[in-house]
Amino acid sequence: IQYNPDHYGPSSGDEYAAIKSQLEATGLFTVNLQSTEWVQYNKDRVSDVYPIYQLGWFPDFSDADNYLTPFFTKDNFLENH
Fold this sequence. Notes:
Strand order of the largest sheet: 1-2
Strand content: under 5%
Distance between the termini: 19 Å
Radius of gyration: 14 Å
Low-confidence stretches: none
Structural class: mainly alpha
Shape: globular
Number of helices: 3
Order of helices and strands: EHEHH
């Protein structure tokens, strides 16, 4: 899991360490945590460099469509194909 230590705050490392711990506790997963500074991270994530990565989302207003549509429209900002 790739995460960013400088854009989303210093707690990102702790958050992803907790996710790693929970996933590995099941015995189904082995998690490798990696961090990359934001400038490189933002370039790499849209180039399919990371199989799993952190990305925050703060909706503009409280509407269910605003939580989903930006991720699944054609040519969305995630570039998630």
